[in-house]
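Sanity check

After download, print the first record. It should look like this:
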Amino acid sequence: MVFDMRGRKPALLVLSDGTTYQGVGFGADGEFFGEVCFNTSMAGYQEILTDPSYAGQMVNMTYPLIGNYGVNDEDFESARVYMGGFIVRESARMLSNWRASGGLDAFLVKNGIVGLEGIDTRALTRHIRTRGAMEAALSSVDLDRESLLAKLEKAPGLVGRDLVKEVTITEPYVWEDKAAGDCDFEVVAYDFGIKRNILRLLTSRGCRVTVVPARATPEEILALKPDGVFLSNGPGDPAAVTYAIESIRGLLGKTPVFGICLGHQLLGLALGGTTYKLKFGHRGANQPVMHKATERVEITAQNHGFAVDTESLAGCEFGEVELTHWNLNDMTSEGMRCEKAGAFSVQYHPEAAPGPHDSRYLFDSFLKLMGEWR
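Expected structure tokens:
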């Protein structure tokens, strides 16, 4: 298919290695500098756009047609869009879903997000897979390659950058959900960039959830007398979020802890381990994960660019740390448990909105652990 660029505004994507893609701009006019990554999901673009874990990044969607069911007022995973740029092969202008309240183009305009379409997104994906995720410039206002490269050199990178402080809340709140069941457990959830479907699943299982800022101290958390503490997903380099690592360390062994994604990485660091950056990360709704205890393969939704080095957890002061899950694509760590510390975590997203429901049992595991620690 030849993409028709007639009468459309041009836009440019320039990678830090000089590779350049020219296409058509949609969404808001502007430019963004950040890491370019790819997501293999076929649907769920609204949830991806509103996932705070994408702060500091632009996302290339591998599925060729994005936007065909529009956007709606219900499928937000946070209050707004945090990513800086959105790249698709083709942005659909005709909407075919009764729930749609608007189109993708207008949604990006409203949220000030630069979009790029009309490029070979497969070629971009293959390039990232070969060379690794890298910093890039996306612009619909400056189409000079050398100018964008010069600006990109001055832009902050992802490694060593604390992006949690840019997405977390400033004041605690109690999550209200009309579908919530009877309250059996009090849970305090750290907001490192939390997704709303996590809160929905916790409340649907009888948890009253108080969401607190990323800088909440162990003393502040324990004063709320929680049955358990949840560590949320979030953006950026986990090693840069030093205050959260120290707070988590102060909670271990005192209350049950369950972490997802960035929460998994922060738990690994709090247990004395290290993290490292993956070549191109795991992002999509189709990642195969092996559950060690059952040898069952779960199809999972994922969004992360860093991983926990499980070998670095040997000799943990809190006791043995067991690897519970691993990724069947590259054999990286996808889950761990420290029984003596009362903590477990997974690297992927069991709340999966949208996506497979294979891993939702983990929320029940959290309830069981809280019941055992009462």
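If your output differs, re-run the checksum step. Summary of this record's structure: The radius of gyration is 21 Å.
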